[in-house]
Each structure stands twice: as structure tokens, then as C-alpha cells.
């Protein structure tokens, strides 16, 4: 009995208290820190979500406006003559049927004379020849090409806006459209944020342009109605990148974000009740408390069991070392004795975590290299996240290349011959692309698209791109000599262009690619399509940047598909045709 009493009130109490506190204190600290950082992470995700929703809503409103301007563009394509134009009248009437938001259209010729007026609510006029050149809308369209008026309220109720568009030549004149903005309701009513959130649109003066409750819009510029919406708008502007909190017209606390609508200078504001927006945050906090309570209970049970069976840590250490030695790096030795045995177990756990992290990093880089260029994969892993792949605007050199006559060759050649040619082709180009740290954004069949200066910035990107192109041409031309000996009639052409582009990742959840979007990409593709065998064609920007290092020769103006004006094209000179290697 004395021995049992000593065990309960001696070693048992000692080990129970030490083990219990050794587990509970770190667990409590970790739980509190996880709760705090979880709250911050959830709030950050909420900011990102609201930002995405705001931009999406802005894109939808922008699409409504752009849809109208795109339709108006068809009315300013051809120059006016002195005779009445019945076809334009028919086109204008057809446009009124196709776009219900347009209330009236006024077509003005290159001399500023009104030639046609059609309206849903007024009398049509044809060939009135009234001088409209002094109108604000006409002057604004001639100056800027596309002009938007401020929002005005018809009979202090329905919001209207005037849009004026000039043609690409003075002789085609100007079209002026009166637009009933009440019809944006169909767009704004379809925008839902969560279960109860919604969006509304304000103009640059803070007046309500669109709202799911159209009765609020029809109140016009009533200050009492507009005050709550302006308050939310001001809260978003003050918050900047953070989540803005305010109270809506119903007095409900809301989280809000905003996105601009270019052109008419509107702002799309989305709001969501805080009770709904922060619901995941509150749920996460309660889960953390629950896990903490469960962890404390489990710690007490484990401390009692470990104190009762002193030999158990030894067995756990033995088993743990065997499993870690067998390569099960995810296994953790759970010993809470508070003494050297626990520290030894923690050392094994740290070692296993390090091995697991190293293995995970190798697998992550290998996976990234399946879809990204090697330097992009290394950059993502080095920074610890993929923010470097997010969309941004930067100066890039775009390089396109493909084989000439490959389609005809692949149609008559055997599959083995086709794969042989492609294998040699990509083996040769792949080594050069890697050496020059170019980003391979896409390849299809025999065509490649490369980026220089994104996402990794380089010095003298144009010179590097030209050096890359020359080496690629030389390498492929050596292959072509061998292919010609086999009877394959294949050539190789390239196109380079330099300019600003939007670069970033694009795709869906399980697959992303890194790419560039912009006019420079289209221009490089068109130059590549225009290039003959052994030709490297470049635009004026690339030619100007490398003229002191490479021989570039202008070959005249060329009109590229998809462009309204011709471009001066340059040919990059390189060595004569090589012998077969």
C-alpha cells in the first residue's frame, strides 16, 4: 500500500503534471495563434473574394456599355455622299430594335450636318442638314473618338446618358446615341454576391445609375436616397485595398468593394452583409475553440496513460525510428514526457519534417516544370508562392517560330517520320531556349511562342531575343540540310516584336499556363506568318534596339492581318546556309 501511495502522489503526479502542461501550453498557444492568423487569413481571402466579385461586376457593366459602343461603330464605317442614304436609315432602325437601351440615334456627316435622326419617342428626321458641329457631343467625339456625357435624369427620374462616336476618318462623320440607363437593371439584378449581397453603380458625382431595386434609381438625384450609397462608396475609397465596412440604406452593416467602369467613369460597388461575409471567420474561430478543448482533454488522457506506463515512450521511440527509417516521413513520434525522451522524439520529428519538406520541394519543382519554363518553376519555388505569375503589365519581346511546309510534309509522311523530325526539332530548340532563359509559353505542332523579359526580367531583352532567334535559325537550318537529304521539303521562319503586354498565368483550377496578351503578341505572330524559310522578321522597336549589335535591313511596309495600318518590317541578317552536321 505504501508503494502504491508513493507512486500515485510521487512519480505519477510529477509526470502527469509535467506532461499535461507540456502539451496544453503549446497547444493553447498554437490554438490562439492559429485563431488569430486564421482570422487574418480569412479576412484576406474575403478581401480577395470581394475584389474579384467587384471586378467581375465591373466587367459585366463594362460589357453592357461596350456592347452599345460596338453596335454604334457599325454606323460610322462609310463616308457620306451628298445624296440621302436609305441604307443608313435602315441600319439605324435595325439598331434601335437590336439594342433596346438606345432611345434615339443622330447621324452627322463629316461637315457637321445632321443627316438622320431616329427616335423611339420623337419624330424621325431625314436630311435636315442642321449644323451640329458645335454640339458638345460632336466636339467630344471628334476630339476623343468616343465621348460619354454625364448621367442626366429624364423628368428627374429615369437616368439617361449620351454616347457619341466618331469614325476613323473625318468623312464618315459622328453618331450620337441617347441611352436609357434604366435597362442596366437587367445586368445589375443578375449580379449576386453570396446569398444576399448585391451590386449597384454610381457615376462620378456619386449619383445612382443602376440598382437591383429600380425604384431607388427612378428617384433620380434625391439626396436622401443617395446618401447611404455615397457613404458606402466613400468607405471603399478610404479603405483602399482592405475590406471596407459601412452601413447600407437599410442600416445593415456591410462589407464592400468597388471596381471602375472606364469610359463613362462609373464605379461598380458590391456589398454583402457582415453577418454573411464573416460567417466563415466566425465558424473557423468556433472550430478552433472546439479543437482546443478536445486537444486539452486528449492531453490529459495521454498524460495519465504515459505516467502510468513509463515504458511506453521507449516503445514509441523504437517504432518511430523504424518507420522514419523506412521512409514514412509523415509519421510523427508523439511523446509528451517533458524530458529527454520528448526532446529526442521532437528531434526525430524535426528530421522527418525536414526530409518530408525536401521531398515535397523536389516533387513540387518537378510538377511545375511539366507546365512552366524551368526558370519560371525555379522562381515560383524560390519565392515560396506564385504571386510572380499574377497578371501585370510589362515590356516583353515576343518570339514566334514554326516550320514552313510542315503541314504538307506531315500529310504525306509516315507517323514515324513526322515524330523523328519533331523530336530533332524540339531537342535542338529546347537547349537554346533553356540557355537563353526564355519563357516557353506554348507550343502546338511545329509552332513555338517564347517570351523574353517575363516573368524574369533580363538586361537588353531585344538583343537577347535576336541572339536567341539567330542561334535557333542556325541550329534548325543545320537540321533542314539533313532533312532535305531525306527528301523532306521543310523550312523555318521566325517573327519578333517588342512592346508592352499583359503577362500572367491563365487557365483553370487544375492546369495553368503562363502567357502574354497584347498587340505585341499578335504582331509577332503575324511577322512569323509572313517570314519565309531562313527569315527572321522583326518590328521597328526590336530593330532599333539591336541595330548596333546586329545587321538589320528594312524590307518595306507590310500590311498585317488584323491591323488597319502597314508596319515597317526588318530582316535580321545571319550566317549563310550551313552544311549538314
UniProtKB/TrEMBL annotation:
One of its GO terms (cellular component) is plasma membrane. Gene3D superfamilies: 6.10.340.10, Nucleotide cyclase (3.30.70.1230), PAS domain (3.30.450.20). Its main location: membrane. InterPro entries: A/G_cyclase (IPR001054), Adenylyl/Guanylyl_Cyclase_3/4 (IPR050697), dCache_1 (IPR033479), HAMP_dom (IPR003660), Nucleotide_cyclase (IPR029787). The keyword Membrane applies. It comes from the Bacteria. It is a multi-pass membrane protein. Residues 397-528 form the Guanylate cyclase domain. Keywords: Cell membrane, Membrane, Transmembrane, Transmembrane helix. It is found in: Cell membrane. The chain crosses the membrane at residues 284-307. PANTHER family: ADENYLATE CYCLASE, TERMINAL-DIFFERENTIATION SPECIFIC-RELATED (PTHR43081), TWO-COMPONENT RESPONSE REGULATOR (PTHR43081:SF20). This is Class 3 adenylate cyclase.
Amino acid at each position: 500500500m505504501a508503494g502504491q501511495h508513493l507512486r500515485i502522489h510521487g512519480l505519477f503526479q510529477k509526470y502527469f503534471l509535467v506532461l499535461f502542461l507540456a502539451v496544453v501550453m503549446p497547444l493553447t498557444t498554437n490554438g490562439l495563434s492559429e485563431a488569430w492568423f486564421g482570422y487574418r487569413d480569412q479576412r484576406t481571402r474575403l478581401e480577395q473574394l470581394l475584389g474579384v466579385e467587384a471586378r467581375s461586376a465591373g466587367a459585366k457593366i463594362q460589357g453592357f456599355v461596350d456592347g452599345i459602343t460596338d453596335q454604334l461603330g457599325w454606323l460610322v464605317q462609310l463616308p457620306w455622299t451628298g445624296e440621302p442614304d436609305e441604307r443608313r436609315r435602315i441600319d439605324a432602325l435595325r439598331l434601335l430594335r437590336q439594342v433596346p437601351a438606345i432611345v434615339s440615334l443622330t447621324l452627322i456627316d463629316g461637315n457637321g450636318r445632321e443627316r438622320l435622326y431616329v427616335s423611339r419617342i420623337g419624330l424621325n428626321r431625314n436630311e435636315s442638314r442642321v449644323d451640329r458641329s458645335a454640339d458638345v457631343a460632336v466636339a467630344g467625339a471628334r476630339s476623343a473618338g468616343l465621348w460619354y456625357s454625364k448621367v442626366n435624369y429624364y423628368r428627374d427620374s429615369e437616368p439617361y446618358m449620351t454616347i457619341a462616336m466618331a469614325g476613323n476618318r473625318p468623312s464618315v462623320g459622328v453618331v450620337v446615341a441617347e441611352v436609357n440607363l434604366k435597362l442596366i437593371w437587367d445586368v445589375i439584378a443578375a449580379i449576386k454576391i453570396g446569398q444576399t449581397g448585391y451590386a449597384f453603380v454610381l457615376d462620378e458625382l456619386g449619383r445612382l445609375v443602376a440598382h437591383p431595386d429600380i425604384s431607388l434609381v427612378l428617384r433620380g438625384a434625391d439626396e436622401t436616397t443617395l446618401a447611404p450609397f455615397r457613404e458606402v462608396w466613400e468607405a471603399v475609397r478610404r479603405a483602399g485595398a482592405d475590406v471596407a465596412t459601412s452601413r447600407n440604406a437599410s442600416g445593415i452593416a456591410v462589407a464592400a468593394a468597388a471596381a471602375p467602369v472606364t469610359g463613362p467613369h462609373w464605379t461598380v460597388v458590391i456589398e454583402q452583409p457582415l453577418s454573411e461575409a464573416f460567417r466563415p471567420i466566425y465558424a473557423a474561430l468556433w472550430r478552433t475553440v472546439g479543437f482546443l478543448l478536445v486537444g486539452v482533454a486528449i492531453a490529459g488522457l495521454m498524460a495519465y496513460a504515459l505516467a502510468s506506463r513509463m515504458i511506453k515512450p521507449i516503445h514509441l521511440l523504437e517504432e518511430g525510428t523504424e518507420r522514419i527509417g523506412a521512409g514514412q516521413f509523415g509519421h510523427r513520434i508523439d511523446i509528451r514526457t517533458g524530458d529527454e525522451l520528448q526532446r529526442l522524439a521532437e528531434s526525430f520529428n524535426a528530421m522527418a519534417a525536414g526530409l518530408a519538406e525536401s521531398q515535397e520541394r523536389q516533387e513540387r519543382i518537378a510538377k511545375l516544370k511539366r507546365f512552366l519554363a524551368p526558370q519560371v518553376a525555379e522562381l515560383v519555388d524560390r519565392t515560396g508562392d506564385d504571386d510572380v505569375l499574377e497578371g501585370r503589365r510589362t515590356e516583353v519581346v515576343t518570339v514566334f517560330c514554326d516550320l514552313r511546309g510542315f503541314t504538307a510534309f506531315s500529310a504525306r509522311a509516315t507517323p514515324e517520320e513526322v515524330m523523328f523530325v519533331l523530336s530533332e526539332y524540339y531537342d535542338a530548340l529546347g537547349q537554346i531556349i533553356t540557355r537563353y532563359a526564355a519563357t516557353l509559353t506554348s507550343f502546338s505542332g511545329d509552332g513555338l511562342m517564347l517570351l523574353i523579359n517575363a516573368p524574369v526580367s533580363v538586361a537588353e531583352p531585344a538583343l537577347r531575343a535576336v541572339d536567341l532567334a539567330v542561334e535557333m535559325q542556325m541550329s534548325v537550318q543545320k537540321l533542314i540540310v539533313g532533312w532535305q537529304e531525306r527528301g523532306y521539303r521543310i523550312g523555318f521562319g521566325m517573327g519578333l516584336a517588342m512592346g508592352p503586354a499583359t503577362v500572367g498565368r491563365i487557365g483553370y483550377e487544375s492546369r495553368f499556363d503562363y502567357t502574354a496578351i497584347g498587340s505585341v503578341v499578335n504582331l509577332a505572330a503575324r511577322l512569323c506568318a509572313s517570314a519565309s524559310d531562313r527569315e527572321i522578321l522583326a518590328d521597328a522597336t526590336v530593330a532599333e534596339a539591336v541595330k548596333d549589335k546586329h545587321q538589320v535591313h528594312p524590307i518595306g511596309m507590310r500590311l498585317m492581318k488584323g491591323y488597319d495600318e502597314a508596319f515597317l518590317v526588318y530582316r535580321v541578317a545571319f550566317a549563310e546556309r550551313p552544311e549538314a552536321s
